[in-house]
Structure formats: C-alpha cells, structure tokens
Amino acid sequence: MEQESTLEHETTLERALDLARKNHKEATRLLEQAKVAHAAGEIPESRVKQLEDLLDLAAVDLKRVMKEQ
C-alpha cells in the first residue's frame, strides 16, 4: 500500500505537500467537531484548546511545505 501512495507523487515535496494538506484538513475537522461537542458540554475547553494548537501547527507546516515548493 505504501508503494501505491509513493507512485502517486512524482517528488518527495509533492508527497509532503499532500500530507500537509491532509493534516490541515483533518485538524480543521477535529476542531469543528470539538467546538460542537464543547457547546453540548461533552468535552472540556482544554480539549478545544489542544485542537486549536494542533490546527495552528498544521497551518505552519502547510505554509512551510508550500514555501519549499
């Protein structure tokens, strides 16, 4: 399966960009779900903060990879 994934990307930078985009998208999804869960009283504010930090990190990584392209 790893070999199939590698074949889809011509370069390591393309793969890094794809992964950074996927990570950013997933961090955004998790944060949105957490906000809904927090509003319903299901999770603490600290968990929402953790996911905000994760999204910030994913954004920095995405920006870095895009710059390297």
How far is the N terminus from the C terminus? 25 Å
* Beta-strand percent range: under 5%
Please summarize the sheet with the most strands: none
Which percent bin holds the helix content?
A: over 70%
In DSSP terms (H or I, runs of 4 or more residues), the helix count works out at 3
**Succession of helices and strands:** HHH
Number of strands: 0
Q: Which structural category fits the helices and strands?
A: mainly alpha
* General form: elongated
Our Rg estimate from Cα atoms comes to 15 Å
pLDDT < 50 runs, ≥5 residues: none
Average pLDDT taken over every residue: 90
Any overview of this molecule?
Helix 2 packs antiparallel against helix 3. The model has no long low-confidence stretch (mean pLDDT 90). The chain is elongated. It is built from three helices and no strands. The chain has 69 residues and is mainly α.
